[in-house]
Amino acid sequence: MATKEQLLSVWGDKVHPKVKIQGAGAPLVYLHGGYGPIETELVDELAKNFTVYAPEHPGLTSGDEDAYKALDDMWDLVLFYYDLFDKLKLEAPAVVGHSFGGMVAAEIAATDPTRVSKLALISPLGLWRDDSPIKNYIVTPQADLPKLLFKDEHHPAQKRIILNPEDQPGFIRITWALGCTGKFMWPLPDKGLSKRMHRIAAPTLILWGKNDRLLPAVYAEEFKKRIPKAKVEMIEGGAHMMPLEEPAKVAGAVAKFING
User: How many domains are there within the chain?
Assistant: First the structure.
């Protein structure tokens, strides 16, 4: 499977993100979650059906760690992705995002509906209900994270999100990823997306795990009722980190939706 990496210069030459380009077929942009570009198995699965463009969020590219300083808020981040799409000559690709990346994908599709042809949101952040609050995974005790995010708390991939002082490179990577993405999201992951979602014109798949302990499944219906052309697909037994635990199942649902 053809894979390459491209280093771009965007946002007035202030941000230089790395974009992994993999596979063949129609273009698909994949926006990763708050822990950084760790969802590699899902990208591999998606690349069996699409040409996947998987950028790193600002600040997460090695050698360009200060890039996050050039962006102040979510609106800047959305405009940054407009620039990145233009640089890659992507007029209206399918866009898929998980968690934090799902929130960003929804914002891109809402603020400029012409930018996205089809949209798939995998357990996206972006909404808030007082009667069903979202747990702040950034400050959750490390011992509680596997149960919060995984169906199988002993899944090998849980090591990608747990801070281990004995693994200094991993410790730094995770901490930095949470800081760079958390800048645009907390203290609450509601930056007004609910007011803009009616503007999304792209057919939308909302993919949710029935056993998501971070984002209760009630949020799937909240997204559905706000996006005009949305459908919900619930994954039996799925947890928040479905892209790590069940990448083939998630990629299959996404491919069926986009190609259908």
Answer: 1
